[in-house]
Amino acid sequence: MIERGFFRVVYGGITEGNYLCNHPAVDEIHLTGSDKTFESIVFGSGPEGARRKAQKNPLISKPVTGELGNITPVIIVPGPWSESDIRKQAEKVTTWLTYNAGCNCLTRGCSSNIGTGQCVKLSQELSAI
Fold it and tell me: For residue 111, what pLDDT is reported?
């Protein structure tokens, strides 16, 4: 994904984050972080941010989603997966999502970018466990 230019890693802080969040080429924002980071991006920081939050008046109009509280995402990408590969990963995802009722900071979140047939198969594997 990195080699083909679909994914980039950027290191930085508030300056870099603000630049990326407000860049016209960015249609949507998704982050993994704390509620404070989320609120700072959506409403701003300090007293002004608190006022904007209370008034439900965000700084940005583009969609913003977040996995807050250190939930680690699971990204499933297309590949030459065998039936046993899919079964093994379905078992892992199920374990991650159900361990301690999903109430720990290492619980994974799921996002799917695979073909419909594989999605259905993964769903069937999850429901069978």
Answer: 46
